[in-house]
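Quick question, first post here. What does this chain look like in 3D?
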Amino acid sequence: MYTFAANFSITIAMTTLYLVRHGETIDNALQLMQGQIQGELNDTGIAQATRVSEELADRHFDAIVASDLKRAIDTAKIIARPHGLSVVTTPLLRERDWGDFTGRYIPELKGQPWPDNVEPIDKLLDRAGRFLDFIRNEYEGKCVLAVGHGIVNKAIQAVHRGCQMTEVERMVNAEVRVLTL
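> Answer (accepted):
Ran it through. C-alpha cells below.
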C-alpha cells in the first residue's frame, strides 16, 4: 500500500473574450441580407461603436480582433481608439455566407427554399470552433475584444456553451457579451 500526500496548486490562465457585434450598417437599416459583403456603418452604427468604445475605455484589452469585413473592422477601430491597439483581422469571424440570399430583402425570404450555396451550419460551427481555438492559442490568459457578426457570433457562443444555436439569444448591433475560455 502506498500513501501519497501532496501540497500543490495549479493556476490555469483563463482567457476573457469580449464578443461584439458590429455597429448598424446601411444594409441592416434596409433589412438586406449582407452575408460576406463588406458593408458600411451608417451614422447609427458609428454612434453605437463610439458608445461601446466609451463604455469599455477603462477596460484593459491585450488585443482587438475583427472579422476581415469592413463593417466589423470599422467598428473595431472605433472601439480600439482609447486603447491604442491595432486591429487584427481574421476570416474566421466572417459572417455566414448566405449564397444567393445575399443582398436580398430579408422579409421576402421567409418561407423561401434555401439556396444550395448557403454556408452549411456544420461548416459555420466548425469555423466558430476554430476561432475559439485561435483565441485560446494566440491569447492564452489574455483579455481580447473581438468584433464579428450576428450569426457567426451566435455560432461562437453555441460552440462555447455546447448548445444549439437556437438556444443563443440574438445579438443586436454593437452588443457586447463576455465569454471566459
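Strands lie at 16-21, 63-67, 87-90, 143-148, 176-180.
Helices lie at 26-29, 43-55, 70-80, 121-138, 150-161.
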